[in-house]
Amino acid sequence: MMIKQFRTLFIISILIFSIFSVLVSAQDDATHILINSDDWRDVYSGLLYGHLEAKTTKFLISDVHSNIVLKTVPRGSKVFVLESADSPYIVNIADSFGTLGFSTESVMKSSDPFETNLELAKITGVTNFVIVDPSYGYNALAVGPYAVLTNAFVLFANEDNIPEVVDLLESSDVEKLLLYGTLDRAVTKGLAQFNPEVINTGNRFDDNIEIVKKHKAIKSNKQIMLSNGEFIEDALLSGGPNNEAVLYVGRDNVPQQVVDYIKGSDIAVGVLVGNALLNNANSLKDRTGISVFVKFAQGTTQEGAFQRVMDLETFPMPSYDLGISIENLKYNTKTKQLEVIYNNEKDLIVYFKSTFNILLDDENKGTVGDETPVFLDKGETLGVAYDIDLTADLAGATEKKLMADVYTTFGESTRSLEHVMSGLVPIEFIEVEDNSKMKALGVKYHEKIQRFMIKVENIGDVDAYANPNLVGLIINDIKTDIGSAKSTFIKKGEIKEINIKQRMDEVDIVDNEQVKVITYFGERENVLLNKDEGTFDLKVISETNMTMIIVIVVIILVILLIAFFFFKRRSAPVAAKPGKKKTTVKKKSAQKKKKKKKK
Questions:
Q1: Phi, psi at residue 352, to the nearest 5°?
Q2: Residue 452: which domain range?
Q3: Which of 181, 322, 381, 444 has the lowest tally of Cβ within 10 angstroms?
Q4: 448: helix, strand or coil
């Protein structure tokens, strides 16, 4: 019986191996690869596979685009098709190949981009790998040229598919493994056995600079491609014919560390792919002195004949759209402060840094702003006060027409202020005092409900609002700030516990033995201009602790109940037994009779 089962398993294994071998062989015979999917992960994996296998690779960006792409495939070509099972642009596109003069070598249906990514990595047979989390598409694009240069496959990994990634690596005789950017702790833990190199500064521009340095250490080109990681283009992913690295320049504002890196390097030429970032490229040119060229179109050919100039073929990557606004600006004549109300309009945390030139009848009366970036939580409204005494200037003004020339940079971290908000904004006048006083008393973390609990006391003489922020928390080895989108009302003399949701594991808890709390507060709900700062030891409430507390409370209650009944019983009057009572009466009566007789 056992022999028959073994034979069956052996035959099945041979069949699977044969099918896999036929598929690999078919793909090896293919001269072209066509990617028919509206999922960027399929496009990325297919393009990378094509470059590692040195095959001409094309991808569709719409159903109409297929007419253009298919005309670029020479007659007689054998095409390997990577097609999304759920969201292709053209269903079963290979059916039309025969009439166009080329044939289908094989078709791979992609029902899961993670599985497709691993499958293509297996087929290449490479032993070098780069790991990224596809939640951050710009990270995948940043490592593309380096992967092609070093013959490495970029694997997508998160906490759900890490077992499959580990299985692949264990069967691949890994030579080099690089973990790039933010990754789930389950991923870094699962891959620790391979002794990986790690690039993870907590900032995507700093990470990008590090991978560019590694790239240039192998191939020192003085020319580099410029982008922002928002779309896939063939040369951006592969490095182009000269194997150039790609450097991110930001969307509206070039981060300072990018400028500093170029100044300290031998880079002389930057090629901007696409013209959307032309202003940034010009800014980079002015600040660094490099030459900048723009690649904004491509020439198409059909069977060797030049046709026409067309737009670049680009595939959009996931974008992380940030957006803040200034609700109003008011000058408080009582406190001599410019009060600015900021709104975070997106469900992503943001940091901002503002400069305000104060204009009275177009004449500059002073400049105020933030010395360091300010944290703004998801959907949060935050008031910030800037000290500026305009008493003398306003005394001689008749209309008091005051304006602010606003320049605000913002981004996803303190070193990623790549967005810009600017313009002239009128300033209103108010006269308001704020006598609120608040103080944070301590911080606890509840493991079961995954929340910080911050105790805040209103020590002032007026009711007020408070919004505590936890600053410099280390989550998954990266520093971050967290807060609450809404302020909490606290009556004078009252103590309240304010909860902030944050998932932490045992390593994070160890990394945050002390936490810094900045509590913003004020009498007006959305104008919290005062702040209290403090650093506290983090007290952790675990399920074990809670269980022990409950057990101890139950034991104490049982002891108290036993003691209560015990003392109650002892203090109660003891009733005499009926027989003894009668006997006592009789004895007393007999004694009385004896005494009478003696008398």
A1: -135, 160
A2: 438-544
A3: 444
A4: coil
